[in-house]
Amino acid sequence: MAILPRVIVCAVLLLPASVEAQSGGRAAYLESRLNELQRTAAGLSAQLEQLRAQDQQLQQQMEKMQTSLGQRLERLEKGGAAKPVRRSGPSKR
Question: 3-state SS of the chain: helix, strand, coil percent to 5?
Answer without folding.
Answer: 75, 0, 25
